[in-house]
Design a protein that fits this description.
The chain is mostly helical. It is 67% helix and 2% strand. The protein is elongated, with a radius of gyration of 23 Å.
Length: 241
């Protein structure tokens, strides 16, 4: 018990670069460094924090890796606008690893998608306007133009569902939808399941848009439910040959 307590109370000294990163992150969190602001120069940061250039550079690289700033060669670094998309991008690598290492997680993600998209469609049916319908219709035609090109067709599919999520007015829903579909399609690319089903996908998208355009909430949700039930079986982990 005593040994456990001593371990819990042990103080770990942070690297200088980690300390600089934490200070910079705090400056962003408090608004001292706002979106679009230039990040102080390396020399300014060295003087401010009394550290060497390597610690500053490593801290700035960590800031960029986490999507907080953008470092451009030959120019001053700038603070990024923080969005839900930036936040979820930080999960990309670990999510892909999680899905590839445990196939059952794909089924879990499909279930989350189904729940989210049905709810999103219900919200969209109440809020969509004429411009939204025009945009969705145009995206269907753009997807139709990609028939025969699997990767482009899949990207167009993501664009359609993401635009529908945008109608909700909730940027977190929009970001989750786009990222979730990107992860799912990662495991769709190796399968030959689009063949002969592209037209069905397009027809289902059109049915969703038609119901949205008529402010038919139940019709839109049912059309999305049918679409997800049919397409859900297409997502599966790659099979190693």
């Amino acid at each position: 018990m005593k040994e456990t307590l001593e371990t819990d109370l042990k103080i770990v000294r942070l690297k200088l670069s980690d300390q600089v990163y934490q200070r910079l992150r705090e400056m962003v969190a408090t608004g001292e460094l706002a979106a679009g602001d230039f990040v102080p120069s390396e020399r300014e940061l060295m003087e401010r924090f009394s550290v060497g250039r390597p610690a500053v550079r490593e801290a700035l690289q960590t800031m960029q890796n986490k999507g907080l700033i953008t470092i451009t060669h030959g120019e001053r670094s700038r603070v990024n606008v923080l969005t839900a998309g930036v936040a979820f991008n930080q999960l990309d690598d670990i999510a892909r690893l999680l899905l590839s290492s445990e196939p059952s997680n794909i089924e879990h993600l499909k279930q989350v998608r189904h729940i989210l998209e049905l709810a999103t469609t219900k919200i969209a049916a109440k809020k969509c306007n004429a411009q939204d319908i025009r945009d969705l219709t145009k995206l269907i035609e753009m997807q139709r133009a990609q028939l025969g090109t699997a990767e482009a067709f899949m990207k167009a599919d993501i664009a359609f569902h993401t635009r529908l999520a945008e109608i909700s007015g909730n940027p977190i829903i929009e970001a989750i939808t786009e990222m979730m579909l990107t992860w799912l399609f990662k495991y769709h690319a190796s399968l030959l399941l689009w063949s002969g089903r592209e037209e069905t996908t397009l027809s289902e998208h059109l049915a969703i848009v038609t119901a949205l355009g008529s402010a038919d909430i139940n019709g839109a949700v049912c059309a999305m439910d049918d679409h997800l039930n049919r397409s859900g079986g297409q997502f599966a982990p790659p099979v190693n040959s």
